């Protein structure tokens, strides 16, 4: 893999090592996208220090929110959702199955389970540190008769680990660099509970490079574009949202994107309403807000992305003109819940005006997509307020660093 950025071939050639990772099972698709950014940053730091590290993409599956019945949603490669060539222009990545092939079998040399410190912050003082420690939680891995460790490896049941340790870690992703260089010298290392590590530099240049490289798979973008053209009278040429297939050349000026003649709405429900959160609106109040925004911005169409199920009927009754992306059973089989969610995000990202749900990572990822497309921040960083919420703080504008 010579010729990758940050990897000058040394006299004896670089060593090829593999970094794998996984995230706490309950975390959703959009938080996982955020963890990818942290780990990509770690791999870049490792490569700057000489060794030829490759990031192995953790297959998608078994996500709590992917509830479509009769769909087998495990072992899904990243290529179904993202453009691999785009990811690779940022940091070397391979799919898990490629790793198995290159590595000569489904073996991971070392699993490192990341955890916090059992004692918490000592003296209430926060400092960056990492130490080998006894495992705090009950191990999710069990030893088999041959002495290998078995566990959840993204649904690849034949995968085994040769060794497992727990590390208490507190700090940014790059605190793992010395550990992965000096303490652990095996070829393939998997960091489990990788969300334990923090961003090296949230919303900095490196963050945005990785975020910009996470281009949705082309077939999903095309379906979204066809839907926009057919139901929302929205085309890139008319809306000033022309996309460059090469993200490294995509640098739209803030405010240059006009967007399609519709209001984009992300209305997160399910667990957001079960907890009776005060920052989430009732359906009635949400529809009232939608109507007032349509009037204010002179938009006749509204596109709604939502995870609501029973409530959808009520929503349709209150807002009969709303447009949703509703795939047929056959399309759903092909796209899966993850693909449908991406198409919803893509359509919201192209609306003239967008309003999302308070602290939903699904909405946050739409903000970023709109930032990349060059929308004016006023049209993006908006959220619904709870019916009785006193101070309804609006989302933060994160500017791209190119
Ligand atoms: N198709 C579709 N799916 C949605 C929508 N909102 C939420 N979902 C689904 O619900 C999941 C939960 O949202 P995520 O943002 O990914 O999960 P999370 O990281 O727990 O984030 P939060 O939204 O902050 O809970 C998504 O991954 C989707 O599977 C939506 O508007 N459309
Ligand atoms: C790594 O090795 C150094 C030097 O031997 C040691 O001091 C340190 O505790 C080790 N760190 C971890 C996380 O194992
Ligand atoms: C397992 O990994 C730990 C930490 O890297 C190491 O100290 C130990 O020797 C390894 N055990 C085996 C059997 O390789
Ligand atoms: C679609 O948009 C164009 C301008 O971009 C406009 O001229 C046309 O009337 C619109 N068509 C419909 C059906 O709204």
TrEMBL record:
Main subcellular location of this protein, as a coarse class: endoplasmic reticulum
GO biological process: fucose metabolic process
Pathway where this protein functions: Protein modification; protein glycosylation
Catalyzed reactions per annotation: L-threonyl-[protein] + GDP-beta-L-fucose = 3-O-(alpha-L-fucosyl)-L-threonyl-[protein] + GDP + H(+); L-seryl-[protein] + GDP-beta-L-fucose = 3-O-(alpha-L-fucosyl)-L-seryl-[protein] + GDP + H(+)
InterPro entries listed in its UniProt record: GDP-Fuc_O-FucTrfase, OFUT2-like
Subcellular locations according to the entry: Endoplasmic reticulum; Golgi apparatus
EC number: 2.4.1.221
Keywords: Carbohydrate metabolism, Disulfide bond, Endoplasmic reticulum, Fucose metabolism, Glycoprotein, Glycosyltransferase, Golgi apparatus, Signal, Transferase
One CC-aspect GO term: endoplasmic reticulum membrane
Domain of life: Eukaryota
Molecular function GO labels: peptide-O-fucosyltransferase activity
Pfam family, one: O-FucT
Protein family (similarity comment): Belongs to the glycosyltransferase 68 family.
Function: Catalyzes the reaction that attaches fucose through an O-glycosidic linkage to a conserved serine or threonine residue in the consensus sequence C1-X-X-S/T-C2 of thrombospondin type I repeats (TSRs) where C1 and C2 are the first and second cysteines of the repeat, respectively. O-fucosylates members of several protein families including the ADAMTS, the thrombospondin (TSP) and spondin families. Required for the proper secretion of ADAMTS family members such as ADAMTSL1 and ADAMTS13.
Protein name: GDP-fucose protein O-fucosyltransferase 2
Source organism of this protein record: Hippocampus comes
């Amino acid at each position: 893999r010579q010729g990758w950025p940050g990897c000058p071939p040394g006299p004896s050639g670089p060593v090829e090592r593999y970094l794998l990772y996984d995230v706490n099972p309950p975390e959703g698709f959009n938080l996982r996208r955020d963890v990818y950014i942290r780990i990509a940053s770690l791999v870049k730091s490792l490569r700057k220090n000489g060794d030829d590290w490759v990031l192995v993409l953790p297959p998608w599956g078994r996500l709590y929110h992917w509830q479509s019945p009769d769909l087998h949603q495990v072992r899904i490669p990243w290529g179904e959702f993202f453009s691999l060539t785009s990811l690779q222009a940022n940091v070397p990545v391979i799919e898990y199955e490629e790793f198995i092939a290159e590595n000569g079998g489904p073996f991971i040399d070392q699993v490192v389970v990341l955890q916090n410190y059992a004692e918490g912050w000592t003296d209430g003082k926060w400092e960056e540190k990492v130490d080998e420690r006894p495992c705090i939680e009950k191990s999710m891995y069990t030893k088999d008769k041959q002495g290998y460790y078995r566990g959840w490896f993204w649904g690849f049941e034949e995968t085994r680990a040769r060794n497992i340790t727990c590390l208490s870690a507190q700090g940014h992703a790059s605190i793992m660099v010395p550990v992965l260089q000096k303490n652990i010298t095996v070829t393939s290392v998997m960091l489990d509970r990788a969300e334990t590590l923090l961003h090296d530099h949230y919303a900095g240049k490196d963050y945005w490079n990785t975020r910009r490289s996470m281009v949705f798979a082309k077939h999903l973008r095309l379906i979204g574009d066809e839907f926009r053209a057919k139901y929302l009278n929205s085309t890139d040429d008319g809306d000033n949202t022309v996309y460059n297939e090469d993200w490294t050349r995509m640098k739209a000026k803030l405010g240059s994107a006009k967007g399609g003649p519709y209001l984009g709405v992300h209305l997160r429900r399910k667990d957001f309403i079960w907890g009776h959160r005060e920052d989430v609106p009732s359906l009635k109040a949400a529809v009232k807000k939608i109507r007032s925004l349509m009037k204010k911005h002179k938009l006749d169409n509204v596109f709604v992305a939502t995870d609501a199920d029973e409530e959808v009927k009520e929503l349709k009754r209150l807002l009969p003109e709303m447009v949703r992306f509703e795939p047929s059973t056959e399309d759903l089989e092909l796209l899966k819940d993850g693909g449908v969610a991406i198409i919803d995000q893509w359509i919201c990202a192209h609306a003239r005006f967008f309003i999302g749900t308070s602290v939903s990572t699904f909405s946050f990822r739409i903000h970023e997509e709109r930032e990349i497309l060059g929308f004016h921040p006023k049209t993006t960083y908006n959220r619904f307020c709870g019916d009785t919420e006193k101070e309804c703080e609006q989302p933060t504008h994160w500017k791209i660093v190119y």
